[in-house]
Amino acid sequence: QAVPAGSHVRLNLQTGDREAKLPDSKNGRSDTREERRRKRYSDAKHQEWVGCWFHVDVDSNSFTAQELKKALAKMKENEKAERKVRGAHEEEVRKKFRPIEQLKEEFEKLNMKMETDYEIMVKLISKFNSSASTLDEKVAALYDLEYYVHQV
């Protein structure tokens, strides 16, 4: 259910109801405009007041179709704006860093093999499971594997 902007919303753990409260003014007293808004909102929605908190009905019919369309349109606009920002950030990252495939090729040209942590862990597991490995090699593989797993 739609509640006015700036409202405080809570879940009453005793009753399980969701409740909302309109904010008080800075001096702790409600001004007349806020009181009118509270009265208008409570009369329009037939809310049950509990102190200054009122029950929020979680009824699926509480939004009008137009309100939902506006909310969805806003969400789509926000998503498009976020996508533009994210795309610019990704492009900036691509300019700063090279892909791992390119780095591997350059290391191979230098006769150096670059392995990822995953590849190293697979080798250590296969060394541990190998019947040809000695007990010392298996213990060493477990210690090394512990290091890599700890990073993850």
Automatic annotation (TrEMBL):
GO biological process: protein transport
GO MF: adenyl-nucleotide exchange factor activity
Amino acid composition bias (Basic and acidic residues), ranges on this chain: 16-44
Residues in coiled coil: 65-120
Claim: Transport is one of the keywords in the record: yes
Disordered, as annotated region: 1-44
Keyword set, alphabetical order: Coiled coil, Endoplasmic reticulum, Protein transport, Transport
GO cellular component, one term: endoplasmic reticulum
InterPro entries found in the cross-reference section: Hsp70_NEF-Inhibitors
PANTHER family: NUCLEOTIDE EXCHANGE FACTOR SIL1 (PTHR19316:SF35), PROTEIN FOLDING REGULATOR (PTHR19316)
Protein's UniProt name: SIL1 factor
Organism, scientific name: Haliaeetus albicilla
Phylogenetic placement of the source organism: Eukaryota, Metazoa, Chordata, Craniata, Vertebrata
Gene field: Sil1
